[in-house]
Write a structure and sequence with these properties.
By secondary structure, the protein is an alpha/beta fold. The protein has a domain of 87 residues: 2-Layer Sandwich (Alpha-Beta Plaits). The protein is built from 10 helices and 9 strands. Strands 1-2-3 form a 3-stranded mixed sheet, with helices on one face. α6 links the parallel β5 and β6. The radius of gyration is 23 Å and the shape is flat. The protein starts with 66 loop residues before the first helix and ends in an 8-residue tail after the last strand.
Length: 346
């Protein structure tokens, strides 16, 4: 994957093959669920099997010549509606279920399966009692947005007490790691900020255990930076940890954030409705901005090429619209449409 990508958006596809050189913005494997009882409703933190950075899709104007595509186009909101702030349907479901008093430990969604998964913290009898109610609430919320592309699954939350010794040991080790990370993060961040370092991001990977520090590429005090970190670890009784310094181009970082926001504007509708034929989406800004749309049509189907060509035209028209000018900023960009068998078809 491209080394320039920010750690917080670099991901790996683990359920379908997507050409790495074409997909610089893939989503990382699902992180291990928190062992606390606190509900988690961020769909980007739970159950992501595989999905590119959520993108795009305005089917507007008369660009489509196909009757099927015209039908799709007729159901997309106007620009004015599109640009209203859009909430995350998965987060909304989790919040609503919690508000109603259900014992929810986590809510997430897997892509490209588009399966919303709800974990309930309770006995089998409790789950059986509330299963129908929870499904009804969730499906009503999906229906209110005309989202028909999702399936729904309810499962029991498996805390560490109900698992085997091996799993319990893993949980214990991870908890110790998290406690260590919290301590390290606090003291290092305070000290480096005091010394005038501009820390763009800071993290600690579990396996292998590594400190990841992102700084502007203009920063030259790399040796001093590592010395300060090692000293802080030492005086706090923490064993040395390998340090990985990542230098980031601030211009590219701004561009990356901006295009991420551009493409995220309409991801909910596009992925939520079957007729859009989109299984996942992505983007890159290296060397120039590029939109990547992955559809459900095979490259061998007769209508696929026409569909892709028209889809490209509509995306292009959207990016050149008055509403998007301030976001695109006149930058050159590319649009690639991938078939179900991951071939570029436009």
């Amino acid at each position: 994957m491209n080394d320039h990508l920010s750690n917080n958006i670099k991901r790996e596809i683990d359920q379908i093959k997507v050409p790495e050189k074409e997909l610089n913005q893939a989503i990382q494997s699902a992180i291990q669920k928190s062992k606390e009882k606190k509900p988690t409703f961020n769909k980007r933190l739970l159950y992501f099997g595989s999905v590119a950075v959520l993108l795009f899709g305005l089917f507007i104007s008369s660009a489509f010549v196909s009757p099927a595509m015209a039908k799709v186009a007729s159901k997309i909101p106007y620009f004015g509606q599109i640009f209203e702030p859009k909430s995350d349907i998965v987060s909304d479901i989790g919040k609503e279920l919690t508000r109603r008093g259900y014992k929810i430990s986590g809510v997430g969604v897997s892509y490209p399966q588009k399966e919303i998964q709800v974990e309930i913290d309770g006995s089998e009898s409790y789950i059986n009692k509330v299963r129908g109610e929870i499904e009804k609430i969730a499906k009503e919320m999906l229906h209110s947005k005309n989202y028909d592309a999702y399936t729904f699954k309810i499962s029991k939350y498996n805390d560490y007490k109900s698992r085997g010794d091996a799993e319990e040991e893993k949980d214990k080790a991870r908890k110790e790691f998290e406690e260590e990370y919290t301590k390290v993060h606090r003291v290092i961040h305070q000290e480096l900020t005091k010394r005038g370092y501009n820390l763009l991001s800071y993290g600690m990977s579990y396996k292998p255990k590594t400190l990841e520090v992102e700084i502007p590429k203009t920063e030259t005090r790399i040796k001093e930076l590592k010395q300060v970190i090692n000293h802080i670890l030492e005086i706090n009784g923490i064993k040395p940890i390998p340090i990985n310094i990542k230098k980031t181009d601030m211009v590219k970082r701004e561009q990356e954030d901006r295009w991420s926001n551009i493409l995220d504007v309409v991801s909910q509708d596009l992925l939520g409705k079957k007729e859009y034929k989109v299984r996942m989406v992505g983007f890159s800004v290296y060397p120039e901005p590029e939109i990547q749309a992955f559809i459900t049509l095979s490259s061998s189907e007769q209508s696929t090429k026409e569909f892709a060509e028209q889809l490209e035209k509509v995306i292009d028209e959207f990016l050149q619209s008055d509403q998007m000018k301030s976001r695109v900023k006149g930058e050159s960009y590319h649009i690639k449409i991938f078939s179900k068998d991951n071939k570029v078809i436009n």
